[in-house]
Amino acid sequence: MNQAQSAWPARPDHHHPDLARAGRARLRAALATAALFGLAACGGGSGTGGLADGPSISPLAAAQVSEGVVTGFGSVIVDGVAIDDSSAAVKVETWDGQAVNAVLQLGQRVKIEHQGEHSAKRITIDAAIIGQVQDVAADRSSITVAGQPVNLNATAGALPITRYAGGYTDALDLAVSDWVEIHGLPVFDATSSSYRVQATRVQQLASEAIVRVRGMITDLDQSAQTFRFNGLTVRYDGAATAGTIRPAGAQPSEGAQALVHGVIPPT
Question: What is the pLDDT of residues 50-59, one digit of tens each?
Fold first, then answer.
């Protein structure tokens, strides 16, 4: 578990925007009535690259924030490190920006606000993707959800194991058109020069939900007011966002990290 700055690792060639500066202004666009996303071509296959985070922790002073993956309980264990959560509020943020009470589960990625070293004041569950499965690789090594490539792993080793929940027992249960919540770590795929999610938890959802995608902005078109997250094109014009960009007045920039909620119109 590492102190939280940006969840996205540097590209291997180091030719990337300053995420420490640009990535902190998170763009959230949320809407229930107009189309927010335009869906583009889907991707698939397995990827290569390094994980954004390893199982390590630095000494944390009060009020610092860290992030990682829930790997156990007995307090809560994040990336192998025990965190006292006896007085912590556990929250998840909804599409409209509200923080509601939640219960921690194995494999979830979380952000922890510390009140002392290894002691949590607040834990926020931070899914990478909520959306519909568009493609499942024949060997079950990857899926595509809301235009985002997701790697799956069933073998203990260098990569984190993918846990399944919500009716899934393993990757064989996955099917196109399922609604899922994905937790995981960003991985750079040198072949496609893009980021994938290395899944730590895949949970089937009982019903359709507001789509959520966290990613790195590419192909920003300020005239059309669109950008892309891998296979997903996002509209952020006034009609699409209805004034719900947060923080108020924020504007997307190429290479910045963004969190977007919305709906994908039918094709």
Answer: 332 322 233 3
